[in-house]
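User: Hi! I have a protein structure encoded as tokens and I'd like to know what sequence might fold into it. I'm fairly new to this, so please keep things simple.
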């Protein structure tokens, strides 16, 4: 199939890797990206093993330079995470061209994010666009303890809270409520992007809906679910 649909696949080479913690690894890829259709927040598919495909999100997607990056969450429980752990400069892979849902709303003046480690690439990709378009943004990320400072270390102004699996998204929802109290109009003006753990994004969405946020202002994509493989 990959040979038949060669225009839909890219040959990429790993040109650099950086570990920010035991669980977060940024990989830089180079490829011929001329004529590749890209939208911020699009996803690419990696072959994690002979039979398994996994989704990831490119950011810093530079057509002319022919480079992009992916922030991988290394959770150690599946072939996608294992592949990402092993990647080294010089490795060559075949991946799908970017595709998937267009979540970014270019006309919105205010953007609000909720996610986790798996959402960092999506967040970085949209932030580039939001800054370029002079728009406002806020957000909260639910992370494991060892990753709480990483967004700030990377220069991103986003709140982080510890993950609470027994009560998904509860701490993040408290941050949302504080933000709503502090910023009049946020609820009415913002588009909300909810990505990452399915139980968490569903809990967050439920609160937004109960506060009267319209479905069209909530962009939701579950990236992984406890006990499920390869969403
Ligand atoms: C559109 C889209 C874009 C995505 N972009 C990114 C991205 O840029 N970076 C990124 O890291 N991930 C991203 N993901 C999430 C990633 O595809 C999933 O985490 C995927 O399940 C990883 O595959 P795996 O083979 O490692 O684990 P799987 O074989 O799918 O799952 C094995 C076990 O691990 C658990 N598991 C899966 N993911 C996690 C996790 N993150 N933390 C803890 N347990 C987990 C599952 O519940 C399951 O029990 C994206 C997903 C989608 C749908």
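Assistant: Happy to help. Inverse folding works backwards from shape to sequence: for each of the 231 positions I chose a residue that suits the local structure. Here it is:
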């Amino acid at each position: 199939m990959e040979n038949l649909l060669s225009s839909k696949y890219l040959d990429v080479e790993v040109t650099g890797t950086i570990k920010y913690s035991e669980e977060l690894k940024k990989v830089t890829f180079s490829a011929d990206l001329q004529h590749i259709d890209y939208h911020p927040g699009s996803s690419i598919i990696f072959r994690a093993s002979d039979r398994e495909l996994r989704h990831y999100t490119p950011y810093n997607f530079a057509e002319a330079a022919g480079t992009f990056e992916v922030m991988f969450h290394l959770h150690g429980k599946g072939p996608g995470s294992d592949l990402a752990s092993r990647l080294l400069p010089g490795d060559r892979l075949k991946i799908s061209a970017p595709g998937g849902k267009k979540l970014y709303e270019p006309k919105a003046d205010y953007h609000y994010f909720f996610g986790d480690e798996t959402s960092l690439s999506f967040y970085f990709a949209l932030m580039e666009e939001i800054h370029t378009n002079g728009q406002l943004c806020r957000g909260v990320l639910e992370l494991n303890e060892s990753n709480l400072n990483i967004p700030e270390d990377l220069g991103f102004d986003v709140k982080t809270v510890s993950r609470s699996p027994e009560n998904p998204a509860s701490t993040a929802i408290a941050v949302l409520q504080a933000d709503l109290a502090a910023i009049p109009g946020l609820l009415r003006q913002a588009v909300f992007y909810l990505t990452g753990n399915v139980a968490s994004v569903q809990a967050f969405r439920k609160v937004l809906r109960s506060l009267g946020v319209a479905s069209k202002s909530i962009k939701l994509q579950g990236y992984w679910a406890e006990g499920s493989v390869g969403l």
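A useful reference point when you look it over: The chain has six helices and twelve strands. Feel free to ask if any position seems puzzling.
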